[in-house]
Write a structure and sequence with these properties.
It comes from Algoriphagus limi. This is 6-bladed beta-propeller protein. With 388 residues, the protein is mostly beta strands. The chain folds into two domains: 131 residues, no CATH class; 180 residues, no CATH class. The strands form six sheets. Strands 1, 2, 22, 23 and 24 form a five-stranded antiparallel β-sheet that branches. Helix 4 packs antiparallel against helix 5. The longest helix has 11 residues.
Length: 388
């Protein structure tokens, strides 16, 4: 590990007395609150690799992790000791169905659930196959982000992004926008999949005249209590549904980002695919309801036309370099949204990578930012949200 990381960790203790929990912030507009993620604990695993935390068991005794480079799955105890290690991708009969489309989660204390492009699989903690749930349609994922949260479990139902039901409508177009649904609900008791979340009239994607690209409406969603919250990739609007009615939202709230670059209504999306420009539009990345009625949201504002043209033209066909250069220009981060206002960007120490697990404002887990550290072990950081 670099010396700078050592001094950073050593200095944490001096900051603990200088900050307040976000829940203890005096009455003050959210737009005026300067917040930060404060590290106060960690989970260390004796493994040389890029481990990402996927989930924590309901009883808090086990942690589910995955190596970003090899897709190897790990189960550790609460001290970081590796209990199980296995690989479940590929053509093996016990493998994930199709390509893994998102992070795995604990179904209960004794089993995990992993989503694939062709169905959902449950395993024992040891990796032994328990059950395969396959829909009656063939999965059809044209855009997969395997380290996203694409399913949530509540009361024996799995709410999951599993496209393919509307293959007769292709994956975009006016007919798709009018007739398709965006999520599936799997009843673990009946083993049946049901469609959910058609584009509501409150969303621009319900338009019968303006066509959008399939990348534009890739969903980010979360289930908490009796509600489902959803953001579409290139729309700054939070939709809230009751789980008893996933046809019509109970609210639709515009998120007042300082800047969020949407597709121009004059632009025609690529037919059945993506333009490189599509990846540099504004994007909602993650969504976590908080215990005090707010929403922790991660987003990127996107690149202006001039910025996108500069990056694309300068790097030609070197896509890795293109995204590296775009990252330098693409502002954004985490904000809190209370339904009306947003906070300034929340300060995040450079050593923190991906937000992997939100439990409460006092327990937010981040995986390591591997570009900022050189370790002979893997570490997951436990943080809390505080005001400065």
């Amino acid at each position: 590990m670099r010396n700078s990381l050592f001094f950073f960790m050593a200095g944490i203790v001096f900051f603990l007395a200088c900050s307040e929990k976000a829940s203890e912030v005096p009455n003050k507009p959210l737009s005026d609150q300067n917040l930060k993620f404060e590290i106060y604990d960690s989970l260390m695993v004796d493994y040389l690799g890029n481990l990402t935390l996927m989930d924590i068991s309901p009883n808090g005794e086990n942690y589910l992790l995955i190596d970003q480079n090899t897709d190897t799955i790990f189960v550790t105890d609460f001290k970081g000791k590796i209990i199980h290690k296995y690989y479940r991708s590929g053509d093996d009969p016990e493998s994930i169905q199709g390509n893994r489309t998102g992070l795995g989660k604990f179904l209960d204390n004794e089993s995990i659930l992993i989503p694939g492009s062709q169905g959902i699989v449950t395993y024992e903690l040891s990796g032994n196959l328990k059950k395969v749930y396959k829909p009656e349609f063939t999965g059809m994922s044209s855009f997969v982000v395997p380290f996203n949260q694409v399913h949530w479990v509540s009361n024996q139902k799995v709410y999951v992004y599993l496209p393919g039901r509307h293959s007769d409508l292709a994956q975009q177009g006016l007919a798709f926008q009018k007739e398709s649904t965006q999520l599936e609900v799997l009843d673990l008791n009946t083993e049946k999949f049901e469609p959910a979340i058609p584009f509501p009239k409150e969303s621009k994607y319900s338009s019968e005249t303006q066509e959008f690209g399939s990348l534009d409406f890739y969903p980010t969603f979360n289930v908490s209590g009796d509600s489902l919250y959803i953001l579409f990739r290139n729309e700054p609007k939070l939709l809230t549904y009751h789980l008893s009615n996933l046809e019509t939202p109970v609210s639709a709230k515009n998120i007042p980002y300082v800047e969020f670059i949407e597709r121009k209504t004059s632009e025609e999306p690529a037919s059945g695919g993506f333009n490189i420009r599509d990846f540099f539009l504004g994007v909602n990345l993650s969504l976590f309801p908080t215990e005090d009625g707010k929403f922790l949201i991660q987003y990127l504002r996107g690149l202006t036309e001039e910025e996108a043209d500069e990056v694309i033209n300068a790097e030609g066909t070197d896509f890795n370099k293109m995204f590296e250069e775009a990252e330098k220009l693409n502002d954004g981060g985490f904000i809190l949204f209370d339904g009306t206002q947003v906070s300034p960007i929340i300060e995040k120490p450079e050593i923190l990578g991906t937000l992997s697990k939100y439990v409460s404002n006092d327990e937010i887990w981040f995986s390591l930012n591997f570009e900022e550290a050189e370790n002979d072990y893997s570490v997951i950081y436990k943080t809390r949200l505080v005001t400065q």
